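2024-03-11 09:14:02 DEBUG pipeline.ingest accepted 1 chain
2024-03-11 09:14:02 DEBUG pipeline.ingest length=395
2024-03-11 09:14:03 DEBUG pipeline.predict start
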Amino acid sequence: MSKMKKKNRHVGRKVLFGVEIVVLILLVGVLFAYTQLHKKMEQLNFKDDTAENGEKIQVEMNESVSESEVLSGYTNVALFGINENNSDTIIIASINNDTKEIKLVSLYRDTYLRVAEDENGNGIYNKCNSAYLRGGPVAAVSMLNTNLDLDIQNYITVDFAALSEAVDCLGGLDVDMSYEEIVHTNNYCVGTSEQTGGDYTPIEEPPVPEDQSKIIGTYHLNGIQVTSYCRIRKTASMDMGRTQRQRYILNLMADKAKKSNLTTLNKVVDRVFPLVETNFSKSELVKLGSGLLSYKLTENIGFPLDYAMGAEVTKPVTGLDCLIPTTLATNVKYLHEFLFDDKDYIPSETVFTRSEFMANKTGFGNASVPEKSQYLIVDPSDDTEDQDETDNYEY
């Protein structure tokens, strides 16, 4: 039975993400097992993204982005946590090549974006997590690049079971929880246990407090419980709270991994690597892992920053209970300001085209941008050249 420690501290700081801890563990594993590198790396599922005709499947990218000097100073990686081939977790990890600082962006899974195109080249708009289901990781990376003006080439995909395995190998985590989180974690444990085959003991529920959202104590959770905690979406904060919990778990796992001995880390690698798929090459992972001790997790945000949500307002205009960026262009501008400190960034013509289409389709245009973010509104005519794209069709 999980025991509550007598602590009543509130999580007042900004917290960091969960499934991308596999990246940290992967890099730690590469570093400490350097002498056995090839043996350990063989456990990973390397994907070369080759089509049936033998040609390499290319990740899409907006033309102007490929020429960006600012973005050339960063290594961006897409991190996917999948459940039944849906990417329920989508993270962008951006590494500053000079400072080794890492910034994380959690893309809300229900964000309304252009996820594919039909046989005539017309855009298909849907929840962003459906891109992975439609075309796998390459399609999901292309969705990120073309909607957000990014230059991601590499991805790491992990199954839900990987997070559970990693936590158990580390001996569990001490997690600050509210009453409502305890209740929902217990509920999610049923499905998580069935999907992963893992065991758990329900957390003992304390008396119902007046404020069920307030942190009431610290609980020691195993892998199934931590994974279930990361899946909670039924609190008032919905998907935003879910991604925040995931980032909080990353922080806890990173701290514990750094303090673990080589035997424990070796166990993590042996249990987790077989559950990881990536299009990184072995040499690229070695190069990435060699600078591990210099890396520093810094800031993190959820995307989009501004949005319209709620089935009553989104279903009539999209047919989906989703998050509609208000607007895509202003959110992308903010994203580049956050990740790359580029305050003068002007989104590409592709982004402006999609942003305008979504605004016309949904009715959530520049007038819907909050006052605090109106400084991000820019004139599309300020952009010079990019691809010619039109969208007039959607599912």
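2024-03-11 09:14:41 DEBUG pipeline.report The chain has a mean pLDDT of 83.
2024-03-11 09:14:41 DEBUG pipeline.predict end
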